[in-house]
Structure formats: structure tokens, C-alpha cells
Amino acid sequence: MRILERLPARLLTGLCALFLIALPAQAADQDVISLGAAISLTGKYSTNGMNTRDGYMLAADRVNAAGGVKIGDKHYRLEVVFYDDESTPARAAQLAERLIRQDGVQFLLGPYSSGLTKAMAPVTEKYAVPMVEGNGASISLFDKGYRYLFAVLSTSDQYLKSAITLAAEQARKDGRDPASLRLAGVFENDPFSQDIRDGLMQDAAQYGMRFVIDDKLPPELNDMATSLIKVKALKPDMLIISGHSKGAALAVRQLAEMRVDVPMVAMTHCDSAQIIEKFGKDAEYMLCASQWAATLSYSDRWFGSAGEFAALFEKTYDYAPPYQAAESAASVLVYADALSRAGRIDPDAVRDALAETDMETFFGKVKFNAAGVNIAKPMVLFQVQDGEYVVVAPSQWAAGSLRHPIPPWSDR
Q1: pTM of this prediction?
Q2: Is 6 helix (H, G, I), strand (E, B) or coil?
Q3: Residue 214: enclosing H or E segment and its boundaries?
Q4: CA-to-CA distance for 104 and 261, rounded, in angstroms?
Q5: pLDDT for 21
Q6: CB–CB of 238/167 below 8 Å?
Q7: Domain architecture of the chain: domains with CATH
Q8: In this predicted model, what pLDDT tens digit does every residue of 165-213 receive, in sequence order?
Q9: At a CB cut-off of 8 Å and minimum separation 6, what does 104 contact?
Q10: pLDDT digits (tens, 9 = 90+) for 17-73
């Protein structure tokens, strides 16, 4: 499969299908353990789908280069089998069924996005097939009682919690009561972003902060001018935006075009949207929620440190890894660890081993609660400073201080 990495998405999808016909999972080669993945190679999530694919492939290569997965006295190579879910939940569910029933795959990796993960989870649960995922953060995924779903990432309710905390800390430094802060929220109308909204409402309420704007963005995400006009009129102390990579790029572009002045702006998916590369100085001061940073002090036996993972990823794929790639790679490492501890290639045995996971990867620590949520890893918050992402929160991870307030566009 390594040769397929650099091929165009549509050709890759077709060749993957041929590969599955010619070589059903684990049937032709007993030295291979196949991990199935339906990911977004086309459609609105294709950028993050590419990040997901590249993370999966790099991690499988590293595990194999280190001798593969040892089960008993035998070593197995990991092979990742891909299909294109076209960024649609219905297609993702169909492909999960195909991977399990037709292709005989016993272990699944997650798709990109909470919505697609929600579509696949009932299928993997139905067939008692484990799914380890790193891109479905919606907290509502984990209140269904699923036993076979495990997420290495922090859940959506945690994504921008540190932004609220940081705003409160800054208010106190400025001699203000945090309760006096007025917030504006603009959220895509999808499960992930709406869960972020719900978490923020709770976090803000703890400080007595008030949302003066609470807008939903349509799935097309082609314009947020109406919301930004409100921001201009109401002058909130902080603007918070969640709309995946397309929403982040749209926000930075329209904030600059419309010259919207706001003292603090926090959003998701800055790095995968490449806001620094695409918008240069217009991206300065943006606060960006992230699951991971290359400067964090995590490490593992496959990649070494977080920084070493980042360097290898960029050398391999010619772009710096966004956290979506890192969490995807970590999902493969969690499988490698659980398969080895399970001692046999059996979905139920591997599921039980996953439930007992307690490990550190370059991405962070991984330990699952009974719902399959990783309870061992915090989120971090970047700020774009002089064309670089600098961790500014939580304080224990901070590599720099918050630059606040954002200067008016007339002074930039």
C-alpha cells in the first residue's frame, strides 16, 4: 500500500478496491493484520481526510519498520485498507459494513469528523468490531454505551475550554471582572461544532460571561458575513468560531476583508486550514485550539518525541503535520500496543486489551474510561505570533505569553 500514498485521491480509491478484491484482509497473507479505514479523500473534508490518511500510513510504516506487532512468537505487519467515504455519513456507514462483511477486516480505524464517526459506530458495534479513532471528538459519541469505540483525542467539550479560562485570566490582569466579558459564538451546524458550543456555554456560565451572539453556520460554509456584521455592531470581547478547516480559513479571510476589530479571536482547525501559509499577517493573533503540538514533551518507542514525529512527517509528506495527522498516527500505535497485549488476533480479546490501555505516545498519554474516552490528555491553545504557532495555554505547556488585545486593523 505504500506505493499508493502519492496517487490522486480518485485513483487511490479505485486501486484500493482492486487491492481488496485481489487480497482479502488476512486471507492471502497470514503475516498481515489489516486495519480498515473509510476516510474522506473527496468532498468537504478532503483536506483533513488527507491528513488522516497520511497519519495512518506513516504510523503503520513505523510499526512495521520496528518489527511489526509481536503476537506470541510471530511478528505481523500492519496494512491499512482505505476506501473513500466522500465526506458523507451514509457512505461511511456503507463502507464500514463492506470492510467487515465483504473484506473480512476485524479492526477499524476511524473516519474524519464526528458526523462520520457517528454513522460508523453503530455498524462496528453491531458486528462487535473494535474501532480506534482520532477524529471524532463529539461528546455525544460516548453516551450511547458503545463497547467497541475508543477515541485517543480529547472530546469536543474540551476543545476551547482553555480559551474561556485564558480570557478570564486576562480580564483579571486588566482589572476586570470576568463576568463582565461579552462573547460572540459562530458555530457550524454539525455535531462536533454544536458540542463545542454546548461546552463553551457551560464554561462561560461558570465565570458569569454572557454570549451576545450565538449563530449557526450552514454546512456549505461559504459566508459568515452576517455574523461578522453583528460582531462589528455589538463589539464583543471575544469571538469564538468552530467550522473545521473550511470555517477557519473563511473566518480569517472575512475578518480581514471586513476589517472586523475584536480583542480576542479563538477558533478550531487553524493548522489544518493553513491559515499562516494562506493569509500571512492577517492570521496574526488568532488563538487556535489543538489536540497536540510538536513542542510537547511526549515520546514513544516508534517515533521518539513529538518533535521527531513532526520532522519525519514533514520529510515524508512535504507539509507540517496538523494535529489531525498526529492523532490518526496515534490511533495506529494504540492498536499495535493492544494487539500485542491481547496475544491473539481476536476482536473481543483486542477490545478488552484496548479497554486496559495505559500508555504514552508522541501524541500524548492514552488511557480510556468506560465510555472509550481518553482521559489522560489535555488540549492546548496556540496563538499565531510572528508567523508561528506558539502554545499560550494551559500555563504548564505555554511556550509564550498571550498577545492581547488584538490591535485594530487600522494599526496593523
Answers
A1: 0.80
A2: coil
A3: strand 210-217
A4: 55
A5: 32
A6: yes
A7: 2-154+294-367 (3.40.50.2300), 158-290+379-411 (3.40.50.2300)
A8: 999 999 999 999 999 999 999 999 988 899 899 999 999 999 999 999 9
A9: 24, 25, 26, 27, 34
A10: 333 333 334 333 459 999 999 999 999 899 999 999 999 999 999 999 999 999 989
